Automatic annotation (TrEMBL):
This is Thiol reductant ABC exporter subunit CydC. PANTHER family: ATP-BINDING CASSETTE SUB-FAMILY B (PTHR24221), ATP-BINDING CASSETTE SUB-FAMILY B MEMBER 6 (PTHR24221:SF654). InterPro entries: AAA+_ATPase, ABC1_TM_dom, ABC1_TM_sf, ABC_CydC/D, ABC_transporter-like_ATP-bd, ABC_transporter-like_CS, P-loop_NTPase, Type_1_exporter. It comes from the Bacteria. Residues 351-579 form the ABC transporter domain. Residues 24-289 form the ABC transmembrane type-1 domain. SUPFAM superfamilies: ABC transporter transmembrane region (SSF90123), P-loop containing nucleoside triphosphate hydrolases (SSF52540). The chain crosses the membrane at residues 20-49, 55-73, 138-159, 165-186, 244-272, 278-299. It is a multi-pass membrane protein.
Length: 594
């Protein structure tokens, strides 16, 4: 149960030793409650067997008091057990929930490669609740079985040493072997069912969404047969899991009886030899029956753990502390970089990349390989190149949200830390979000110093002068009520409202025609004369004025230089420039004649 071990370490990291101590107390109380029940069973058994010989009542007084005491204590113990265990688990849950939300709010060091971020977040919220189930229904019963089992074995050993072996065997079968079998079967079933169910859903969706095409091509029967075969596969996996669960349940039901019979077998000669009394032998037999029966919750706990394991792993993965950036020196001092506030000129900063290699997944080619870049204050560098060549990844590396696996990144001489990089680096990134709020709120984002006047000025600079008088206009979910060009310019205004020392612009003028785009970008750059600027763009005309233009291809630098120099090189840039000019002229000619 590596996941369970990691969970306990995480609980300690988040809540300190007190959380683990509370869980341990919960385990002791639960074990105490179970032992009180067993003591009641033992006392009552001794009383009944001894009373059959009609001894003087004084000989039974202690046992009678014991039965009453244990009966009352068991009820109280159960109440206390629920109280303490739920209190401990809910405190842990609160720690985990807070930490998960904090981790989700933190900019990702590792890029997210999941296909559906929204689905992942929704599932994560449910996953956090699984922590409670793992604690209360899996780990606690296991701890109780170990504690209460140990005490029962000790008591049995004191009364009748020969009975320890059959009891231990019964406990190992029900408390160890059956849970291991149940866990393995449930894990195989869960793994198999996930893919089998996905295949059924996929086949069913193909049949329903593609019905018209299937009918038109006479392929309905074949498609339905595929869906039916996938459904059969699900049924087969479920049947297999059901058979194992039934076998485990069956064995768990007979082992307590067999254990009691085994204890009875060794007890009979001991009673005959006068080593112990019949009453004590009966106590030991019933204790074995009761304890092994109680351990019968463990196969169920193991099955439940197999189902919760995936959720637990996902939560632990989110909670894992971010790993340090490889090959990048840490920030020289612990002092945070000064916050940039509107109206306060931020100190200039330079950006330096050396031999940067970055990769999104181990089994994929590097998205960047051997990238060198120098962007001093006031310098404008453009990144161009085919789609997927790595432009956005260079910006993400500078922002610190993608950590390179080799090479170094320096922003003002230190590796960018995603937690604090926003103080020095901001702009319009590929995944920037427009909030379902007003224009003014989207521009200011609640930052101190960005009042309405600052927001208006930023909107004008970003090419949205008409919006300066519409700060209250609500823009819809993720800017749904905006055109692509308006959305980008709103994001530009947000970046300009607090001009950063390093301005990163990913397709900032997407959706505008090249002439308007170049004009907007010129105005934006004029507003941040001392910023180090890196712009990624597809339209070459928009960035032709840049001090340096870097052409990327498959994560490597293909060409670099200024516009005139690159045209002279007669390479990718020159060809793309000619193609874009021809296409713009063709468009203009078409528009004029049309
Ligand atoms: N989050 C991600 N997870 C996995 N792979 C990614 C991710 N983002 C980018 N990639 C891959 O990294 C490579 C570089 O992508 P990047 O977005 O940096 O290129 P780009 O030049 O900005 O493309 P575009 O011009 O289309 O925006 C591509 O192969 C892309 O598929």
């Amino acid at each position: 149960m590596t996941g369970a071990g990691a969970l306990l370490r995480e609980i300690r990291r988040l809540g300190g030793g007190r959380r683990l101590a509370r869980l341990a107390v919960a385990g002791v109380v639960a074990a105490g409650t179970e032992l009180t029940g067993l003591a009641l069973l033992g006392c009552a058994t001794w009383l009944l067997v001894t009373a059959a010989d009609q001894p003087p009542i004084s000989a039974l007084t202690v046992a009678i008091v014991g039965v009453r005491t244990f009966a009352i204590a068991r009820g109280l113990g159960r109440y206390l057990d629920r109280l303490v265990s739920h209190d401990a688990a809910l405190r842990v849950l609160a720690d985990v929930r807070t930490a998960v939300f904090a981790a989700m709010a933190r900019p990702a060091r590792e890029p997210d490669t999941s296909p559906d971020e929204g689905d992942r977040l929704a599932r994560l919220v449910e996953d956090v609740d699984s922590v409670q189930d793992v604690l209360l229904r899996c780990l606690l019963p296991a701890g109780v079985t170990v504690l209460a089992g140990g005490v029962t074995l000790a008591v049995t050993g004191a009364v009748l040493p020969a009975a320890v072996l059959p009891l231990a065997v019964g406990l190992i079968v029900v408390g160890v072997l059956l849970p291991v079998a149940a866990f393995g079967a449930a894990r195989r079933a869960a793994d198999g069912l996930a893919s089998a169910r996905a295949a059924v859903v996929g086949a069913a969706v193909d049949v329903s969404h593609g019905a018209a095409d299937l009918i038109a091509t006479g392929a309905v029967a074949a498609a339905v047969a595929v869906a039916a075969a996938e459904a059969d596969r699900v049924a087969a996996v479920e049947r297999r899991a059901g058979r194992v669960a039934a076998a485990v349940g069956g064995v768990a039901a007979v082992v307590p009886g067999l254990t009691a019979a085994g204890v009875a077998l060794v007890a009979a000669p001991a009673v005959a030899a006068g080593e112990t009394s019949g009453a004590y032998a009966a106590v030991v037999i019933l204790l074995a029956l009761g304890k092994v029966e109680a351990a019968g919750v463990l196969p169920d706990a193991a099955t439940r753990y197999a189902h919760l394991r995936g959720a637990l792993d996902r939560v632990l993965a989110v909670l894992a502390p971010p790993t340090a950036a490889p090959a990048v020196p840490a920030r020289a001092t612990g002092a945070p970089a000064p916050a940039v506030v509107a109206g306060t000129p931020a100190p200039p900063v330079d950006v330096r990349l050396r031999g940067v290699r970055a990769r999104y997944a181990d089994d994929r080619a590097p998205a960047l390989d051997g990238i060198d870049l120098d962007v001093g204050p006031g310098r404008r560098v453009a990144l161009v190149g085919p789609s997927g060549s790595g432009k956005s990844t260079v910006l993400a590396v500078i922002a610190g949200t993608v950590v390179p696996e080799a090479g170094s990144v320096g922003v003002a001489g230190a590796a960018p830390d995603p937690e604090t990089a926003w103080r020095q680096v901001s702009g319009v990134m590929a995944d920037a979000h427009v909030f379902h709020a007003s224009v003014g709120e989207n521009v200011s984002l609640g930052r101190p110093g960005v009042d309405d006047d600052a927001a208006r000025a930023a909107l004008r600079t970003a090419g949205l002068p008409g919006w300066a008088d519409a700060l209250d206009r609500v823009v819809g979910e993720d800017g749904g009520q905006l055109s692509g060009g308006e959305r980008q310019r709103l994001l530009l205004a947000r970046a300009l409202a607090v001009p950063p020392p390093v301005l990163l612009l990913d397709e900032p003028t997407e959706g505008l025609d090249p002439a308007a785009a170049a004009e907007v970008l010129r105005a934006v750059l004029a507003a941040v004369p001392r910023a180090a600027v890196v712009v990624a763009a597809h339209q070459l005309a928009v960035v032709a004025d840049a001090d340096e233009i870097v052409v990327l291809d498959a994560g490597r630098v293909l060409e670099r230089g200024d516009h005139a120099g690159l045209l002279a090189q007669q390479g990718w840039y020159a060809r793309e420039w000619a193609a874009q000019v021809a296409s713009a002229e063709g468009y203009r000619a078409h528009a004029t004649t049309g």
